[in-house]
Design a protein that fits this description.
Number of strands: 24
Number of helices: 3
Strand content: 35-45%
Strand order of the largest sheet: 1-24-23-22
CATH superfamily of the domain at 75-344: TolB, C-terminal domain
Largest sheet: 4 strands, antiparallel
CATH architecture of the domain at 75-344: 6 Propeller
CATH topology of the domain at 75-344: Neuraminidase
Order of helices and strands: HEEEEEEHEEEEEHEEEEEEEEEEEEE
Shape: globular
Distance between the termini: 89 Å
Amino acid sequence: MHLKFIFSLTIIALTIFGCNSNPASEKKEDTKNAADSIAPSATENKIPNAHYKPAFGGQTRINTVTTTTAYQVEKIAEKLGRPWAIIALPDGKLLLTIKSGYMEIRNADGTLNKKITGFPKVFDSGQGGLLDVGLDPDFATNKTIYWSFSEKYGKGNLTAVAKGQLNENDSVIKNPKVIFRATPELNSEYHFGSRLIFDKEGYLFVSAGERSVLEGRKQSQWLNSGLGKIFRITKDGKPAPGNPFAGKKNAKAEIYSYGHRNPQSLDFNPVTGDLWEAEFGPQGGDELNIIKPGKNYGWPIITYGWEYSGEKIGDSIQQKDGMEQPVYFWDPVISPSGMVFYTGDAIPEWKNNLFISGLSSTRIVRLVIENNKVTGEEALLTDKKERIRDITQYNGMLYAVSDFGILFRISKK
């Protein structure tokens, strides 16, 4: 009996050792093979976190390009507080949102013109606060602006959108009114998404994150939830006509696309008219997407990233039928916040290029795009070591704000 017992323990130990060692060696080999397919470039030579194989050539770490036109970067304002968004007004002044709950109008040279108050109270915690701002297509006549913010609501908080009139002779927003909420509310300080942009038909696109927590993460795949979505709404916050899920059971009619993590970048491609989006991945896997109505962008089922703990996400797959592939992804991440297509003429080689503000990467990313593919990448402002929060353009110049309250102007020398 004693020898039999010892023999049994030996067999069990060998079995356990085999179960623990074989997957580890297989994982190491899989990682090595996948990493071989992700070559370094002059723009990104750091080791990737996830080592996942791209779905097609050029989906990540594309060739580096370098601007040949002489340009200058000027710090035109500082100590701005905590800016989140910047847009240009028709007269060239700049409108900035400050996370704690107010806006500023600044002159083109960066000097303060006016502080605007009177906005609904924001949930100013974590990644929340007063977030994006957009101009009504008829702003010249109706002076209406739209803004997104994190709002205490019910038993938690959420992403909300409001509108009001910005009379440049006054310092208080007029007739503020909440028109849309990305329900349900959750208790989280993260992933509010929150970018706003109007299309040519006068409908407003709104991005909303999945709030980071697991309860919200799974809801990015639910059509009856407003988490992890891009919406298309009217100026009054109603579903825009022609939305892909209108009239469908258990689906929010405001939804335009779904399966997003934390989308903070939206702009229209001036060549094709398509809506482009960038969103935060986890550890690795920031994505650049072309947004199409009714499409599923995969989070959290497919991803090019890992958990921050180093664990795999879900079944650790990157492709699945019925789910869209990103046009491009980054690993390590750039942390994409704002973005803008450059339509100016001052620097011709930048024409129709996409510029994305990076937070953890402390850079502005310039992407050359041809036939809906990224063909070149350049890192700008890397010497500033600033978390670049948002970027806009006016009259051939780029303006960018950082989390540390710096306002930059980038222009031809």
